[in-house]
Amino acid sequence: MEDETKYTQTDVKTFSPAAEEETDYRSEYEREHLRNADLAGRVADLEARCDELTFKLNRIKENPLWKMSAPLRRCMHFVIRQKNRLKNCGSLRGILAKIKYKEIERKAKENYGTKSFPSEEEAKKRREHIFPRMVKISILVPLYNTPEEYLREMIESVLNQTYENWELCLADGSDEKHGYVEKVVKEYEDRVREMKNCGPLIRYRKLERNQGISGNTNQCLEMATGEFIGLFDHDDILHPNALYEYVKVINEDDADYIYCDETTFKSGDINKMLTMHFKPGYAIDNLRANNYICHFSVFARELLDGTELFRSRFDGSQDHDMILRLTDRAKHVVHVPKLLYYWRSHPESVASNIEAKPYAIESAKGAVADHLRRHGFEHFQITSTRAFETIFKIRYQIIGNPKISILIANKDHVPDLKRCVSSILEKSTYENFEIIVIENNSVEKETFAYYEELKENDKIKVVNYEGTFNYSAVNNFGAKQAEGDYLLLLNNDTQVITVNWIEEMLMYAQRKDVGVVGAKLYYGDKTIQHAGVVLGLGAHRTAGHSHYGQHRDNLGYMGRLCYAQNVSAVTGACLLVAKTLFEETGGLDESFVVSLNDIDFCLKLREKGYLNVFTPFAELYHFESMSRGADDSGERAQRYNQESERFRKKWKEVLAKGDPYYNPNFSLDRSDFALKI
To answer: CATH topology for 120-356?
Structure first.
């Protein structure tokens, strides 16, 4: 979005009455006429040039040699695509991991299609189950020239629900050529009335004209009588247990906004799945950047009080706008981590190609912008990312010019420290910072000689921590020496890549709802070392890094490496936090001497209600463990095991619930979002 503040008084022409009287209107008219004539001439030249190029291009395409070479060109393009895919995998190890991931996904797909449907006995048991709240769900479906096969499959999937207190509200904007739509619906309406013997469960309205998705859905809402509203597309399919699972969380968790996992499938067979989307729990930063909730939304009707369901000015992304508005109002948004929605992919659908509805991109930006303004944000920018046109990067305005204190613990390893400090000084575009090097038991002469060099820079100071190495204690000590409003914990074996790395982190750390902010870190071979932390991931079942070892150019699971998002924790190798929050939580827990102190700190902030954010737009190299070595053998391994045990005991209940930002269908043994089998 364009920043309105860039227009200053010097950009605006001012006119006095006297100046207006002296204006030569006739000469101004003539000048405008000449400008228009010149522009028209340029347009004519461009059109002629385009015609010439089109003619030449058509001659090339009609050339027999060009036609004969078509198979060779297709082969060449295929090789280039595979080369790029292999490049994104990184090393041979990465390629093998990708192959393994695809094999796991192929096997997993077998368990999420019709194979997951309940048996007759199971379905009967669910139909007979009585919940304390047997809420009625009004399922809204806007119809428009729906192919008969799709229409019947959609209605049948509702009829097959194992929870039966529903009504299907259909508003039909089809044209005269598609009159069969009304006939098919009437057929099912009669059939349901006979079967249920309890009044119509299908409500139908033929519209005088098509009002688009927003208008037609709003017409559906006018017919609805349920306590909860469900939004369903006219060519998609529901899992038989969808409503049952939703009513279950309404009763057990007092949910008032519910969504589930979903998959796209080739038209005609839900077992031919294309992309399965296993989603995180409610995460506002994810939702602002990407409408990951999408289908199948069901919500308490009272959330609509005083507001519209769909707003036509956001057609194309009316659901993103609606989700942002209603989740803002909801008391408890609940994700059902089960694949319950089948999104049909065909040439005209957004599931098949976003270009089918190009206006959706601008509508989505508008919906997010409207949401951000409601939350008091100003002068932000929303741009598409390399992942997808409707996956966004949001640049928030930085308020004021707060000072950042960069804390770097160090023991010898001058080349590493020098590379780190030099990259900060040479590359950072944010200037109001200080660097505090926390010296801890160095022994090499060159280390102290380098310290003397550093002290010549007004931005840098060296302080001494004389105790034995304790990462938590060292940084707590450094924080007490800091003058900044924000503390940036940074390992000495890091190197800045993106020049605006501080700004990219600070824009989130300044928010009142955010605790810590972490960056995207790479090894020297450009594979990912850190892109957010998942609780319970890894052999110790404490915490692990997602997307670990994937190539820098990888988009990540469902584009997650391309947008800022909420995570449970980030690594202390590069962590930004307001100094007030650091002090409020008592800093790092010094009982965690080397490991898991950063994760523990993040969880303390999350416990206080703050969000933790990972941003991929602050990038650094992290030559991990070069300073102190790895933790996989000898005393270090023993120490890590002890600290892991302490962490598991301290956060037992949190770990038992699972990471809210990591779908429980994913394996905790792999960091690449591979599914459990």
So the answer is: Spore Coat Polysaccharide Biosynthesis Protein SpsA; Chain A (3.90.550)
Q: What is the mean pLDDT of the chain?
A: 88
Instruction: Answer yes or no: are the C-beta atoms of 240 and 327 closer than 8 Å.
Output: no
Q: Can you name the CATH fold of 404-657?
A: Spore Coat Polysaccharide Biosynthesis Protein SpsA; Chain A (3.90.550)
| Cis amide prior to 469 (ω within 30 degrees) | no
For tokens 């209940």, the residue is 653
CA-to-CA dists, residue 248 to 182, 252, 265, 278, 525, angstroms: 34, 6, 27, 20, 48
Place of tokens 């994937």: 550
Buried b or exposed e, range 293-308, using 16+ CB within 10 angstroms: bbbbbbbbbebbeeee
Nearest C-alpha neighbor of 503 from the set 430, 422, 427: 430
Whether 304 has a pLDDT exceeding 50, the answer reads yes
Contact between 624 and 632 under an 8 Å Cβ cutoff? The reply is no
pTM: 0.84
Determine the Cα–Cα distance for residues 384 and 365; give it in Å rounded to an integer. 9
Do you find a cis peptide bond into 314, omega within 30 degrees of 0?
no
pLDDT range class, residue 648, cuts 50, 70, 90: very high
Does residue 80 or residue 551 have the better pLDDT? Answer: 551
In whole angstroms, give the CA distance from residue 265 to residue 545.
31
Q: Where is 257: in which H helix or E strand?
A: strand 257-266
- Asked whether the beta carbons of 643 and 596 are under 8 A apart, the reply is yes
Amino acid at 631: D
Q: How many degrees, rounded to 5, is the angle at CA 456 between CA 455 and CA 460?
A: 45
Tokens of 497: 């890549």
Residue pair 211/134 in contact (Cβ under 8 Å)? The answer is: no
CB 316 within 8 A of CB 357: yes
Would you report the helix, strand and coil content of the chain in percent, each value rounded to 5?
45, 20, 35
- Same fold across 120-356 and 404-657: yes
Contact 644, 635 (CB under 8 A): no
Structure-model confidence comparison of residues 80 and 247, the more confident one? 247
DSSP state of 131: -
7-16, 50-59, 106-115, 619-628 — which is least confidently predicted? Answer: 7-16
Q: Residue 476 and residue 481: Cα distance in Å, rounded?
A: 9
The structural domains of the chain, with segments of one domain joined by +, span 120-356, 404-657
* Cα end-to-end span (Å), the chain: 44
Q: What are phi and psi of 512, to 5 degrees?
A: -70, -20
Dihedral pair phi/psi, residue 167, rounded to 5°: -140, 145
